[in-house]
Amino acid sequence: MSGDPMVGRLLERRYRILARVARGGMASVYEATDIRLDRTVAVKVMHPGLGDDQEFAERFVREARAAARLNHPHVVGVYDQGDDTSDGQDTVFLVMEYVPGHTLRDVVRKEAPMPPRRALALLEPVVSALGAAHRAGLIHRDVKPENVLIADEAHGGSIKVADFGLAKAVSADTQHTATGGVLIGTVSYLAPELVVDGRADARADVYAAGVVLYELLTGTKPHEGESPIQVAYRHVHHDVPMPSLLQPGIPDYVDALVARATSRDRDQRPADATVLLHQLHRVELALRDGLESDPELAADLLPRRSPEIVDASEPGNDTMPEPFDASALALLTEVDPRDSGLVDDGSPDRTTAIERHPVPAGATEAVTTTAAAPVTQPMRAAVPAAAVAEAPTEATRASAATARPATGRPAGKAPTRIAPVTTTARRRSRKGPVALLLALLLVAGIGAGAWWFGWERYTTTPGVLGLDQAAAASELEAAGLTAEEGEAAYSENVEAGLVIATDPEPGGKVLDGGTVTLVLSLGPERYDVPDLGGKTEDEAQDAIAATNLTFGTSKGRWSETVPEGQVIRSVPKAGTTLKPGATVDLVLSRGRKPFEVKDWTGGDYDAVKAALEKRRLQADAGEEYSDTVPTGDIISQDPAPGTVLYRGDTVSFVVSLGPELVEVPQVKAMGVEAATELLEGLGFEVRTEQADIYLGIGYVSSSDPGAGDEVPKGSTITLYVV
């Protein structure tokens, strides 16, 4: 964006800002280049002036630390955090993984409503990422389609959860008051408890994920209003409707999954995203099997209606505890609490999960007539609202049938004969008490049966989280239940072998003598770097991916032992234990290091030999006489200059011994012709001169060089003749 002063800046002499890709209420996100590592990154820059606000700056730093704690393939990684003051003001920024592509919001606009299998495939990585955060003790608090990034096909199409700016460590006092009394998060995805008392835990993320699933399935948000306050009000007072109301082809068990995740009673929701992921996988399996309906799975997933929720089906009853945090909502939307409209709008509640999918027929028969007996509060918790509403009609009909005249004539018609009043009164006095007694016995029996089938035969699942398998099984056996080991799961904060979840959850209802599935911790999810030595780069990348690690980069190194293209070693080294998604780099062999032969002729052999040995090359030398090359210098070499050699190869040289020396023979008193012939035969040049005493007899008196001297072959010998 040409008018953006950030574009073109170099933050901390490392991050070159290229273009703005997104803008939020607190910060803008830019595409940038890390000039030190030569890679594209995303830089999130706090808006000007906010860096001076200590609260905003601390939240920004908290985002960096929170996201850096998560090393997961479906979480956007945070690389760096800094504060640039080069322009005279604080520019607080985060450096994050750049995900080129689009957001889940774009997919909702283009594809929703979509088939359940497609919706769950998009949601599964999101829930997996949230599960990793929850295991690390973090909650996201702003789960929405805009914070789900989807890479384009050229970059693998991976799905990643971004923006942990609202993430916070889970504690017993996690409330909105940390932000000055203002609710944080997006109102369309706020869990009811966040609106009522501001408390947030992992189940708030679960609620938001359930709303996202509803939106994927239907193409609309579950609660809408003219203002954010009205939307928040509906989250508190109205159940999320069943997706099948808008898309009738959706199976009952998918409806149940949405209902479970978005239950207004957070105790009815999955305890965290890891549990939700397990339930999501069960629904995916049913979808893969092509089941149009699965009443057992639906009944298992549907939230169990508490007594308060049953009462809520009756007009005029509120279902959530006060106080309703009107002030916080008013701050959220800058509306005076007195004008917030936080009153019952009189609109009927939408169909709830239990009304849409009542309990199985076997259980219905036991409870449909319970209105004939006094309904106790525990029994009402297990009776669907429809059964409670309809049962009085059946009881009324039974009473009407009992009270009909003995003649059996329809009401309203006059009888042909009227019996004496005294006789009629006598008959009623005999049969009335008996009929009443039978009716009371019948009602009592039906009530007892309903109490048994609807409540008493269930027991509460004991809390065995944190116990080992033996101790958990013992606790369950003491409660009359059977323990069954389920599929184990990784946990960052629960040591291996201890229980991290149960199905049903702690406090949930289970039949007496029923089975409780234990999910045992595998401990922190860790993987050892495999031994990659000798593998090709492709084979090594496959091995890294198979161990849930991430391939980073490859660097080439010369190797005299490892063939070109094969892995020399990995960084970190083989056997190192890492978190899932951690990066493993490769060092690949470039083969033997080549060495280009230079022209060493005329150089000193000893110096050349020392230089070659430093490069782990061998030198071999022969010797020859040379009249032109000084002694010890190189006359010739093999191979010729420009040839490529490798370590251990040999270069052969011919080293000069200097000129060949020949001893001058004794030629004194020899005739000039004889002496000249002898010296020339030895390779000398001969020159004659007259001696100081010249007699003309033609004999040699002396030579220069003299007899016995060694001179180079070809030298000139001077003969002095008398």
UniProtKB/TrEMBL annotation:
List the InterPro entries: Kinase-like_dom_sf (IPR011009), PASTA_dom (IPR005543), Prot_kinase_dom (IPR000719), Ser/Thr_kinase_AS (IPR008271)
Pfam families documented for this protein:
PASTA (PF03793), Pkinase (PF00069)
In this protein, which residues make up the domain named Protein kinase? Answer: 15-281
> Which segments show compositional bias classed as Low complexity?
394-412
Q: What class of enzyme is it?
A: transferase
UniProt KW DNA-binding keyword = no
**Could you tell me the superkingdom of the organism this chain comes from?**
Bacteria
Q: What is its EC number?
A: 2.7.11.1
Region (Disordered): which ranges?
394-416
Q: Which UniProt keywords apply?
A: ATP-binding, Kinase, Membrane, Nucleotide-binding, Serine/threonine-protein kinase, Transferase, Transmembrane, Transmembrane helix
Q: Which reaction does it catalyse?
A: L-seryl-[protein] + ATP = O-phospho-L-seryl-[protein] + ADP + H(+); L-threonyl-[protein] + ATP = O-phospho-L-threonyl-[protein] + ADP + H(+)
**Gene3D superfamilies, A to Z:** 3.30.10.20, Phosphorylase Kinase, domain 1, Transferase(Phosphotransferase) domain 1
Q: Where is the PASTA domain?
A: 455-522, 523-590, 591-657, 658-722
Matching SUPFAM superfamilies:
Protein kinase-like (PK-like)
Q: What stretches pass through the bilayer?
A: 434-455
Protein name from the UniProt record: non-specific serine/threonine protein kinase
Its source organism is Nocardioides potassii
